[in-house]
Amino acid sequence: MSVREERGLRARPVLIVTSVIFIAVALTIPAAARSTSPSPLARERTSNTYPHWHTLFGPDGLARCRVPKASSFELRLTGNAEGPFPGRYRERGTFEVGPADREVLNGWGVTSPAGPVVSWRSHFTIWSDTARIEGRMWLDPARRRASYGECGSFVDQPVLIGEPGWRLTGWDIRVFARVRYRATITTAAGTEIARGRALVEAGVGRAHATACPYPNCSGGSGFVGGGDIFDRED
Fold first, then answer.
1. I need a labelling partner for 53 at 20 to 30 A (CA). Which of 29, 73, 100, 225 fits?
2. What is the pTM of this model?
3. Helix or strand run (H / E) with residue 17
């Protein structure tokens, strides 16, 4: 996972824990084969190392936020893969978040309005010395209610998790999408099709403290991250 922090906002659990974002993929294996045919992607992990962290959701990500109305975003992840197919990976796509219908804690532990993910389309590629893996993802209709996104700015808001006494001003964008996927694994031995479900998480944000339980809490911080964990049930 990749975490990028800037200018000295005092480190504390809420900023460390919530700055980790990942994409988890769970393969669906036919019942008769689950005990004898493990997924070729089992234990594969990827991490986002894309240097231009402010464009994770497109060059104008925050401007695309229309909360409490519907919002549309791009998705851009680039990084490294580890496990059975070590190498590089990339994911690109678009998704839409519907009008806000709930409140959640955002990446900073601040209350934020959120809406359901109503559409998702993305493509991913893993380049390895032994294989090339290409796949696409789309929203899982059976788990639509469990998918949501949140975005927006906040001013002098209390942090509701971790050490008490913190108040922040900043912004963030996050998405949690339950999707289905289909991937083609190409090796020297031929090709294999993998299908399954996935939990996609991604987020980016920036904030600075307006109050804290210490004598000096000036400064700012930014976070970004991403990655895939394959063959995981969520």
1. 100
2. 0.78
3. helix 13-17
